[in-house]
């Protein structure tokens, strides 16, 4: 019995080591994928929540001439969209006249702002 244990237990050990290595490798792969995503959208980013926190104050009322967001405001966005989506997103990132850079969302990445602009435009149909 003892001798069998001596043979089997190193085998179990090496199986454990191999599976631990495989697990570690796949975990690493997952992590690196996640960090690529983090460089784009902020972790847990939600366009509606961020819009309500950072953009709603001006864009719901049209304060200072901000294009209004919400149903029935398509004509506020139509002429702006003629510049192309990329130019409109760039203006959101850099600011435009009284529109402050990043719409005052200083924790927002460029990808977050792009998602916010898409959210604003698509909810203004
Ligand atoms: C302090 C008020 C204010 C806040 C806060 C604000 N905006 Fe604006 N925004 C404006 C005004 C004013 C304009 C119109 C600027 C102009 O055309 O002269 C504007 C215009 C824009 C435009 C149109 C740009 C274009 O090319 O025509 C986008 C897109 C935009 N805002 C996105 C955002 C986003 C996204 C946020 C939140 C992260 C935000 N804004 C927060 C005031 C604001």
A few lines on this structure:
With 125 residues, the chain is mostly helical. Helices cover 65% and strands 0% of the residues. Heme C is lined by residues 54-55, 57-59, 63-67, 80, 83, 88, 91-92, 96-100, 103-105, 113, 116-117.
Give the tags.
rod-shaped, Cytochrome Bc1 Complex, Chain D, domain 2, mainly alpha, 2 domains, 125 residues, binds heme C
Describe what you observe in this structure.
The protein is mainly α. It folds into 2 domains: 1-39; 47-122, Cytochrome c-like domain (Cytochrome Bc1 Complex, Chain D, domain 2, Orthogonal Bundle). Helices cover 65% and strands 0% of the residues. Helix 4 crosses helix 5. The structure holds heme C. Residues 54-55, 57-59, 63-67, 80, 83, 88, 91-92, 96-100, 103-105, 113, 116-117 line the site of heme C (HEC). The site of heme C has 26 residues, from helix 2, helix 4 and helix 5.
Shape: rod-shaped
Note the total helix count.
Answer: 5
Strand content: under 5%
Level-1 CATH class name of the largest domain: Mainly Alpha
Helical proportion? Answer: 55-70%
Gyration radius from CA atoms, angstroms? 25 Å
Order of helices and strands: HHHHH
Largest sheet composition = none
SSE blueprint and pairings:
Layout: H1 2-38, H2 47-59, H3 74-81, H4 85-94, H5 110-122
Helix pairs in contact: 2-5, 4-5
The site of heme C has 26 residues, from helix 2, helix 4 and helix 5.
């Amino acid at each position: 019995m003892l001798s069998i244990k001596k043979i089997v237990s190193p085998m179990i050990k090496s199986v454990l080591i191999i599976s631990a290595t495989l697990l570690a490798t796949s975990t690493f792969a997952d992590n690196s994928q996640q960090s690529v995503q983090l460089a784009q959208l902020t972790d847990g980013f939600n366009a509606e929540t961020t819009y309500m926190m950072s953009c709603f104050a001006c864009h719901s009322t049209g304060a200072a001439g901000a294009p209004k967001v919400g149903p029935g405001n398509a004509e506020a966005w139509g002429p702006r969209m003629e510049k192309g989506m990329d130019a409109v997103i760039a203006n959101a990132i850099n600011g435009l006249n009284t529109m402050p850079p990043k719409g005052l969302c200083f924790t927002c990445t460029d990808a977050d702002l792009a998602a916010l602009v898409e959210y604003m435009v698509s909810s203004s149909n």
